[in-house]
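Worked problem 6 (solution included).
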Amino acid sequence: MSEGDSIGESVHGKPSMVYRFFTRLGQIYQSWLDKSTPYTAVRWIVTLGLSFIYMIRVYLLQGWYIVTYALGIYLLNLFIAFLSPKVDPSLMEDSDDGPSLPTKQNEEFRPFIRRLPEFKFWHSATKGILVAMTCTFFEAFNVPVFWPILVMYFIMMFCITMKRQIKHMIKYRYIPFTHGKRKYKGKEDVGKTFAS
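Solution. The predicted structure is:
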């Protein structure tokens, strides 16, 4: 490999200014993501605010329905991945290769592990909304369509997909939402305490 052939290196072997700029920009972005991790409610409120602004923009502009439909399908796919277990129990029925969700009352409790973790769900949804918002600034993405058909098709697809997901949850007996750590009750203290 000759001198300067590496990605991001200048002719003298040092990283180029552009490469250093984008590396630093990526580090700053990752730092902000890391700082936002514990603030789940705030992150989702900001994302809901962005989606509300996006909906108002589309309503006022009276266009970009295809972009909105694509965003809706993308968010639906993210939501289904968020509700689904990492290891699909229907695929694990035949093989005993790894852990699966308990299907009987006397089986050991295994925590629900999502296919798409909450943080990645939030991050992808926010990026999707920002990309859709950016598309509304370009007339090329404003394809004329009859939007009520898109709305009806999206509602049908949402209902069919969620029905299938709920049937899957009932069949394999898992709930994708938990509230805090599970608490177990010990034996009640029926004896008297000893006084010294």
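Discussion: DSSP finds six helices and no strands in the chain.
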